[in-house]
UniProtKB/TrEMBL annotation:
Family: Belongs to the acyl-CoA dehydrogenase family.
Domain of life per record: Bacteria
Name the UniProt record assigns to this protein: Acyl-CoA dehydrogenase family protein
Acyl-CoA oxidase/dehydrogenase middle domain: residues covered: 136-227
Residues annotated as domain Acyl-CoA dehydrogenase/oxidase N-terminal: 20-132
UniProt GO molecular function: acyl-CoA dehydrogenase activity; flavin adenine dinucleotide binding
Keyword Transmembrane: no
Entry keyword Transferase: no
C-alpha cells in the first residue's frame, strides 16, 4: 500500500469509479446543500434536512451500497466499503454520516438483516434502505457500557409478547429515528438477553434528548421505556439471541469504525499541510521551519502505518480469516494515533486551531472521542492481551 493523501484504486476499476463519484458528490452537491442551509457539526438535524440526503444518496447508489444486490446494494467487500467510509470521513462534510447510511440508515442497522423475518424486512428494514425510515441502536445504559451484561432494561413476558422497562443512553440517531434495535435482559434471568424492534412512538416509550458529547453533535438520545409492549413479530432472532444480534460481526464492525476515523485524521493532516504552506511566519511560510516539517513528517508516517494495518486486517477478513486480535490492534492504534494527529494539527495551527468553529478544532474534539467510543483503548488492550496469553 503506497502513501498518498488522495488514494487511488487503479487495481480496482469499480472502486476507483465509486470513489471518484463519491468525492464529486461530497465536494459538490452535498457541499452546496449544506452551505445553503448554513449547517455546522453542532446544528440540530431534523428529518426535513436528512431525508433528502438519504434519498439522493440512494438515487446515486451510495445509500446501502454495501448490501447484497437483492437489497439494491453492490455487495461490496469489506475493503471496498472501508475505502468509501474513509472518503466520507475525509470530506469535511457535516452530513457525511448520512451518505452511506451510518447515521440511522442501512449501516446503522448493521448485521440484523441476517436475523430479520420477511415481515420485519418489509416493515422495518426495506423502508430504511429506501431512506423512508431511520433506526437507532440501543444497548448502552448509564451503568452498562463496555460491561453490557450489567444492563437492567428488562423484558417481561405478557401473553405472546413482552413488556419492556428500562433506560437506554447514547442511542445514536435516536433524535430522528422511527424505531430502535433494542437489547433487553429477559425477566427472571441473569444471562439471557433478547433483541427487539421497538417502534419509538409506542405507548410507554419516550425519546428524550441525550447528553451532548464533546463533539457538539446533537445525534444522541435516551430511550426510556415503561411497560412498553412489543409483540412476538418484533423479536429479532430467538429469545436469548440478544447479544449475538447486538454484537454480531463484532470483529468486522470494530475494523469498519477505523476507516472513517482515518478519513478524519487524513482531513486534519491535509488541513495542516495546507496551513503550513500558506501561513506566513518570520517572513516565510510556516512550512519553511524544520520543526514544522518534522512534525508533519511524523504525522504522515503515523497515518500511513495506521492505514496500512487497517487495510491489511480488512484484506484478511475478505479472504475469510477472522482477524480478531488484529481488529483490537487496529482500533487501539488508529484511535490513539488519529487523536495524536489532531492534537499536533491544533499545535501547528496555533491560535487558529483553538477557535471554536475552526474545522481542525472540531476534528480534535471528534477524534478524542474515538479513544473511548466503540470500546475504549483499555478494552482493546484487554482483548489483545487475552488473545496472546491464552493462545
Amino acid at each position: 500500500m503506497t502513501f498518498t493523501l488522495t488514494p487511488t484504486y487503479d487495481d480496482n476499476p469499480r472502486l476507483a469509479d465509486l470513489v471518484g463519484r463519491l468525492r464529486d458528490f461530497l465536494s459538490g452537491e452535498l457541499a452546496e446543500y449544506e452551505a445553503d442551509r448554513q449547517l455546522t457539526p453542532e446544528t440540530r438535524l431534523g428529518r426535513e434536512v436528512l431525508e433528502p440526503v438519504w434519498k439522493r444518496s440512494r438515487e446515486l447508489g451510495f445509500y446501502g451500497i454495501h448490501l447484497p444486490e437483492r437489497f439494491g446494494g453492490q455487495g461490496l467487500s469489506f475493503t471496498e466499503l472501508a475505502a468509501l467510509k474513509e472518503e466520507v470521513g475525509a470530506s469535511g462534510r457535516v452530513l457525511s454520516h448520512s451518505v452511506l447510511g451510518d447515521m440511522g440508515g442501512p449501516l446503522r442497522a448493521g448485521s440484523i438483516f441476517e436475523f430479520a423475518t420477511e415481515v420485519q424486512l418489509e416493515k422495518y428494514l426495506l423502508p430504511v434502505i429506501r431512506g423512508e425510515r431511520a433506526c437507532c441502536f440501543s444497548l448502552t445504559e448509564a451503568d452498562a457500557g463496555s460491561d453490557v451484561r450489567a444492563m437492567r432494561t428488562t423484558a417481561t413476558p405478557d401473553g405472546d409478547g413482552w413488556r419492556i422497562s428500562g433506560h437506554k443512553v447514547f442511542s445514536s440517531a435516536g433524535p430522528f429515528a422511527d424505531f430502535s434495535v433494542l437489547v433487553a435482559r429477559m425477566a427472571g434471568t441473569e444471562e439471557s438477553y433478547s433483541a427487539f424492534l421497538v417502534d419509538l412512538d409506542s405507548p410507554g416509550c419516550a425519546v428524550l434528548d441525550g447528553q451532548t458529547p464533546m463533539s457538539g453533535q446533537h445525534i444522541e438520545s435516551d430511550i426510556v421505556l415503561e411497560d412498553c409492549y412489543v409483540g412476538p413479530e418484533q423479536l429479532l432472532g430467538r429469545v436469548g439471541d440478544g447479544l449475538r444480534v447486538g454484537l454480531g460481526r463484532v470483529t468486522a464492525n470494530r475494523l469498519l469504525h477505523c476507516p472513517t476515523v482515518l478519513g478524519n485524521a487524513r482531513r486534519a493532516l491535509q488541513l495542516t499541510v495546507d496551513f503550513a504552506k500558506n501561513r506566513q511566519a518570520f517572513g516565510a511560510p510556516l512550512a519553511a521551519l524544520q520543526s514544522v516539517q518534522h512534525k508533519i513528517a511524523d504525522l504522515a508516517t503515523t497515518y500511513y502505518a495506521a492505514r496500512s494495518m487497517t487495510y491489511d486486517a480488512l484484506a484478511a477478513l475478505d479472504a475469510g480469516a477472522k482477524p480478531r486480535t488484529e481488529a483490537f490492534m487496529c482500533k487501539l492504534f488508529v484511535a490513539e494515533n488519529a487523536f495524536r494527529i489532531a492534537d499536533e494539527a491544533v499545535q501547528i495551527h496555533g491560535k487558529a486551531g483553538l477557535v471554536r468553529g475552526s474545522e481542525v478544532e472540531w476534528l480534535f474534539r471528534r477524534l478524542r472521542m474515538f479513544r473511548i467510543l466503540t470500546g475504549s483503548s483499555e478494552i482493546q488492550k484487554n482483548g489483545i492481551a487475552k488473545d496472546l496469553l491464552t493462545a
